[in-house]
Amino acid sequence: MQVYNYLCETPRERVSDGMPVPILSGPERAQRTLVLVWPQLGDFDSLEYAWWLRRDWAQLQAADISVRAIGIGDRASGQKFADFTGFPADCLWVDPTADLHRDLELYSGLTIEWPLLRRRQAAWVNLMLMCAGIASPGTLREVLRGYTGDRTAPQLIADDEIVDDTPLPAMRGTFFRWAGGRGFQRPFELATLRLRNMTEVLSHWSTYVPDAQYMTQRGGTFLFDPAGELLYEYRDRGILGFAENMSYPLDFLFGKDKVASLGNVTGSSTSGDRAKSVRSPRV
Question: Does residue 282 form part of some domain?
């Protein structure tokens, strides 16, 4: 399947206005177009990916990279997601039944049909097994990295930032300096951001996840040039595995120089077999 043509021909509901329009509309004016196909909008991966995009939004604009995203959910899910993450609603689409994901042959995750369980109940069991690393390579390692820190990743919480939207007492960013220093991802720093995301989703569960039967579905990343040629693609194979380089998920766009500027690191890839670079993208 030609992914670009499919995205130009397949309408889905746009969050900003509720209109059913294609994610792409033909030849793009931007130098590159980044299309993110996310799992449930209440999924760890969707929220965390959006956080990285908002963090580097100015860099994306400077590089003339247009961003489009679609996630599993309805328009209410998309509106809530946009409000919380700051991701632009006019760049966000929704698919309530994950048909687009299946058409693109993205990984459906664990889909065991358990006896006596309905589809939504079975999805919960399958999701818990994936969280334990079953049929979800790299998940446990990535969970652990959130607690132990990562010197190959940039600092995530600024020293003057106050984190006050988790069940924990409010804390200032300088707290993490005591856990290991500054200028890189400190112990518990990423875990704190994930706790904030989890708190948000659990507080509005039915909005973020209107249909639980699609919870195990994974997503993908696609980068195109103005003519629609595929420059890069990455297909998720597990929970918390939405990028080839989780230390800096936008590494495929900006490379090691950008990672170094964020926290004097070089970054490393552990999942190269799941990514395909058709032609090295240039800024």
Answer: no
112 domain-assigned: yes
- The CATH number given to whatever domain includes residue 228 is 3.40.30.10
Cβ atoms of 240 and 279 closer than 8 Å: no
Dihedral (Cα; 239, 245, 250, 251), 10-degree rounding: -170
Torsion (CA) 241, 245, 247, 250 in degrees, nearest 10: -100
3-state secondary structure of 21: strand
What are the beta bridge partners of residue 230? 224
Query: How many whole angstroms separate alpha carbon 105 and alpha carbon 280?
Result: 24
Q: State the DSSP H helix or E strand holding residue 71, giving kind and residue range, or none if neither.
A: strand 65-72
Q: What is the pLDDT of residue 281?
A: 33
pLDDT band at 276 (very low <50, low <70, confident <90, very high): low
Above 70 in pLDDT, residue 209? yes
Q: Smallest Cα–Cα separation from 16: which of 100, 98, 92?
A: 92
What is the arithmetic mean of pLDDT over 180-188? 92
Query: Which residues, 6+ apart, have CB-to-CB distance to 147 below 8 Å?
Result: 187, 188, 190, 191
- Predicted confidence at residue 270, as pLDDT, reads 39
User: Which stretch of 139-153, 224-238, 249-263 has the lowest confidence by average pLDDT?
Assistant: 249-263
Closest alpha carbon to 140 in 149, 150, 131: 131
Q: Which residues span the domain enclosing 76?
A: 3-277
**Domain annotation covers residue 200:** yes
Confidence of residue 257 (pLDDT cuts 50, 70, 90): low
In the chain, how many domains are there?
1
For residue 93, being part of any structural domain is answered with yes
- Is the Cβ–Cβ distance between 153 and 182 less than 8 Å? no
